[in-house]
Design goal:
Layout: E1 16-20, H1 40-55, E2 60-64, E3 80-82, E4 87-89, H2 98-111, E5 115-117, E6 130-132, E7 137-141, H3 147-157, E8 164-168, E9 180-184, E10 187-190, H4 192-195, E11 204-207, E12 219-221, E13 224-228, H5 232-240, E14 244-248, H6 251-254, E15 265-267
Parallel strand pairs: 1-2, 4-5, 7-8, 10-11, 13-14
Antiparallel strand pairs: 1-15, 3-4, 6-7, 9-10, 12-13
Bound molecules: citrulline.
Citrulline (CIR) binds near residues 31 and 94.
Length: about 270
C-alpha cells in the first residue's frame, strides 16, 4: 500500500548492511534457556537467505568473516548504532561480547566520517536495546544496558540532533527489540507485554498475536519486512496492514536468543 512507501526515511531506508558469518563456536552462544545447540549448516543456510533478502532491495551487504573467539559475533547489531550522521560503537553488557565492538569499529571507520564510542567504564549498552524511529531513539534498560550507557549515548548523539528516550525492557526479556520493531516511520510491531507499558504512545501499534511473541523482532529494510518464519497469525496481520513480508528461517538463531534485527547493522553512511 502506498502509505508504506515513504520517501527518504532514515529509519526504514538504507543503502548498506553489515553482517558477519556465524562461526563454528556458535554452539557456545549465550542463551537464557538451553534448548540445544544451533546447527551451523542450517544457520548458514538461513543466514544466506537473510542476506539475499537484504540484497534484493538493492542494498550493498558487506559480509564479514567469522570470528571464532566470539561465539555470538554473528549478532552484529549489538556492536554499534548507525545513524545518518555517524556511528556509535557500543559497550556490550555481556562480558564475553565486549571485544566484538572493537572488531566492528575499523569497518565503520571505512564507511563513516564520524565514528564515536561509548567508553565509560561503568557504561554498558547493546544495539539490541535501541529502536531508532524517525523522531527519537528509544533505549530499553535491560540486563545488558544500564542508565550510564544510555546517558552516554544521549550525550554522543545530541550534537547530531537526536533525542534519546529511556524506556524499560520487560523483565526476563533479553533486549528491548526482542519484543518490538519499527514497521514504518510511525508504526511499531510489539508484544502486548511491551506495548501495555505505554512506551509507544503516539505511534500506531500492531501487536503480535498471543503465543507468537517471538515474531516481534522483525526488520523493516527498504520495501521489505523480514520476519522469522513460523508465525502465521502475525504474518496475516502484517499482510493485512499492507506490508511486503519475507519470512526467513530463524530456528537456529532462536536457540541462542537471536532474531532478525540482531543479524545486521543497517545504515546509509555519511
Ligand atoms: C546474546 O545473548 O547476546 C546472544 N546470544 C543473542 C543476541 C541477540 N541480539 C539482539 O537481539 N540484538
Amino acid at each position: 500500500m502506498a502509505q508504506h512507501k515513504v520517501l527518504m526515511s532514515f529509519s526504514i531506508q538504507f543503502s548498506h548492511a553489515i553482517t558477519r558469518r556465524p562461526a563454528d563456536s556458535i554452539t557456545r552462544g549465550l542463551r537464557a534457556v538451553d534448548t540445544g545447540n544451533p546447527d551451523l549448516a542450517l544457520m548458514q543456510a538461513h543466514h544466506a537467505a537473510y542476506i539475499a533478502a537484504l540484497r534484493s532491495t538493492g542494498a550493498t551487504v558487506i559480509e564479514l568473516p567469522p570470528l571464532d573467539a566470539y561465539p555470538d559475533s554473528v549478532f552484529v547489531e549489538d556492536t554499534a548504532l548507525c545513524l545518518p550522521q555517524g556511528a556509535v560503537i557500543m559497550r556490550p553488557g555481556a562480558p564475553s561480547r565486549l571485544g566484538e565492538a572493537a572488531e566492528m569499529a575499523p569497518q565503520l571507520r571505512t564507511l563513516y566520517r564520524d565514528v564515536v564510542a561509548i567508553t565509560g567504564a561503568a557504561s554498558f549498552i547493546e544495539g539490541g536495546d535501541i529502536l531508532v524511529t524517525e523522531g527519537e531513539i528509544l533505549v530499553g534498560r535491560s540486563a545488558r544496558t544500564n542508565a550510564a550507557g544510555i546517558a552516554e549515548l544521549a550525550r554522543l548523539v545530541a550534537p547530531w540532533g537526536h533525542e534519546v528516550r529511556e524506556v524499560i525492557t520487560p523483565p526476563g526479556v533479553l533486549h528491548f527489540k526482542t519484543d518490538c520493531s519499527l514497521l514504518d516511520p510511525g508504526t511499531v510491531l510489539s508484544t502486548t507485554r511491551l506495548s501495555a507499558s505505554g512506551c509507544f504512545s503516539g505511534y500506531k501499534v500492531i501487536d503480535v498475536t498471543e503465543g507468537e511473541e517471538a515474531a516481534a523482532n522483525t526488520i523493516r529494510f527498504n520495501d521489505l519486512v523480514l520476519m522469522p518464519a513460523g508465525f502465521p497469525r502475525t504474518r496475516d496481520r502484517l499482510d493485512a496492514a499492507g506490508f511486503t513480508v519475507r519470512e526467513i528461517g530463524n530456528s537456529e538463531c532462536a536457540k541462542i536468543d537471536g532474531g532478525m534485527s540482531c543479524l545486521s547493522l543497517r545504515f546509509t553512511p555519511s
